[in-house]
Write a structure and sequence with these properties.
Length: 311
């Protein structure tokens, strides 16, 4: 049986009284009690942040016996991010990195300390960063990644867990991190956002107008051609990005006259006519058509010679 020190006085008095009744001397009947040797704290050496752990304190006596005095000891700690109760229950707060803490217990005039590490186990997001191309072609798709950076110095690809949104008519996300671009009339900037655990990042990407849309065609060249002669005509394509291109060799040329003929490259040759004749020249390219009205001019000398013969 372990005898508590606060019971010693009463037990000693009881022995002295019994010894007196039996005629014994006090030196013969005084009991011998163990002396306090030290106290000792035990418990986990690591505790997660925003968690708790229980610690115990025992007293060791010089006769090898021990006694649990957890509830009787005075507990304390030396850090701002933890608090220990009178019963040895430690509660930890939120930290941004691993921290050390020392808890202490005092009992019977003796003291013991115990070092613990509070682990930064609940990682807090510090910022988000988006990785991906700064430009993409219209009517194509591109993949982007979202990286989360934590308060413990670590980072993680959270693309699949993040929320992706955009504010453009020209692009949209069809899955996590996959942006699909539509058609644009000119190079267009698009901004999108990514959110994860209360944090948000944004990113700008330019959609390139590499698939130009043909707006119209225009035929350029002389409005008059002499009979039995030729002239060259050029077909220019106008695109939605403001650019132009000579497409004379790519268009389909045609005309509506018996007195003129157009070649594949836009060269027009005329035949002899009895009088001035009008015809229309056509160019067809990518579903667009252009036309130009041209006059075949009767040669003046031939007209004069004809009149002379008539006289």
């Amino acid at each position: 049986m372990t005898v508590k020190r606060n019971s010693c006085l009463g037990i000693s008095a009881l022995f002295l009284w019994l010894g007196g009744m039996m005629g014994l001397r006090s030196s013969d009947i005084s009991p011998s009690f163990p002396s306090l040797k030290n106290i000792e704290i035990s418990g986990p050496s690591e505790v997660d942040e925003d968690g708790s752990a229980s610690y115990s304190c025992k007293v060791n006596y010089d006769d090898g016996s021990s006694e649990d005095v957890t509830g009787s000891a005075s507990w304390s700690e030396d850090c701002w991010y933890a608090e220990i109760s009178s019963g040895g229950r430690l509660k930890t707060g939120v930290i941004i990195r691993d921290e050390t803490c020392r808890i202490s217990a005092v009992y019977g005039g003796m003291r013991d300390s115990f070092a613990i590490t509070i682990k930064n186990s609940v990682k807090a997001v510090v910022r988000l960063e988006v990785e991906g191309p700064s430009e993409m072609n219209e009517n194509e798709s591109a993949y982007f990644k979202c990286w989360a950076y934590y308060d413990d110095g670590g980072w993680e690809n959270v693309s699949d867990a993040a929320d992706w949104t955009e504010d453009s008519w020209y692009a949209g996300f069809d899955s996590a991190g996959k942006l699909v671009a539509g058609s644009v009339n000119s190079n267009t900037w698009v901004r999108f956002w990514v959110s994860f655990k209360g944090h948000q990042g944004n990113y700008d990407v330019r959609i390139l107008n590499n698939i130009r849309v043909l707006i119209r065609l225009e035929i350029r060249g002389p409005g008059e051609i002499k009979e039995n002669s030729s002239a060259d005509y050029v077909c220019t394509a106008f695109f939605d990005d403001g650019g132009t291109e000579n497409v004379s060799s790519a268009v389909s040329w045609s005309e509506d006259s018996w007195y003129a003929e157009v070649s594949n490259g836009g060269g027009v040759s005329t035949d002899e006519v009895e009088e001035d004749k009008w015809f229309r020249l056509y160019a067809l390219y990518r579903g667009q058509e252009a036309s130009l009205q041209i006059k075949i001019v009767k040669h003046l000398r031939q007209i004069v010679e004809g009149k002379r013969r008539e006289k």
